[in-house]
Specification:
Layout lengths: L11 E3 L2 E5 L4 E12 L2 E12 L5 E6 L6 E6 L6 E7 L1 E5 L4 E14 L2 E14 L4 E5 L14 E5 L9
Antiparallel strand pairs: 1-3, 2-3, 3-4, 4-5, 4-6, 5-8, 6-7, 7-9, 8-9, 9-10, 10-11, 10-12
């Protein structure tokens, strides 16, 4: 999803407190979190980052009732194309290239700051390798009559590049 160059960028951690365990390759951040890795910007209130032996990062970041967790990143390709999302919790698997937004989730694809795709639902997964969105309803709780849909997507048409 992100620019390929982001993979080799340093991960900059900003928080009220940071705990680093070099043996386990685990970072725990608390309060007013801002993570920056190239064009990727993630914010929230509590975060755990696990680095695997190959150097890939799995990031979990949570919001609070007052502060939602959010992510924004530039996509590979057009200079002004971005993906941005928010939810109560964000899971980002750098190795599998999967982003998961959980809890009143919203996910957008933007080009020149205009919304092309807009998804809302309880849980949204974006698999960059497959370029696939998945909107998942809550697993528990009764559906209310006359309630809004549990998943909603507005998708712009894709232009096909002619083969030469």
């Amino acid at each position: 999803m992100a620019e390929k160059a982001d993979r080799d960028k340093a991960l900059i951690l900003n928080a009220d407190s940071v705990s680093i365990d070099d043996v386990e390759q685990r970072y725990i951040l608390k309060g007013d979190i801002l993570l920056v890795k190239g064009s990727i910007v993630i914010s929230g209130e509590d975060s755990v980052i696990q680095v695997d032996p190959e150097g890939y990062q799995a990031i979990q970041i949570k919001g609070t009732p007052e502060v939602v967790a959010s992510i924004r990143e530039r996509r590979e390709g057009p200079a002004e194309e971005f993906m941005q999302g928010r939810g109560k919790e964000i899971l980002y698997d750098n190795k599998m290239e999967v982003l998961t937004l959980i809890g009143d989730a919203n996910f957008k694809r933007l080009l020149n700051m205009q919304t092309l795709d807009n998804l809302t639902g309880w849980k949204i997964q974006y698999d960059d390798q497959q370029q696939r969105y998945l909107v998942i309803p809550p697993t528990s709780g009764p559906a209310l009559l006359n309630s809004p849909p549990l998943a909603r997507a507005i998708l712009s048409p894709r232009r096909k590049t002619p083969i030469k």
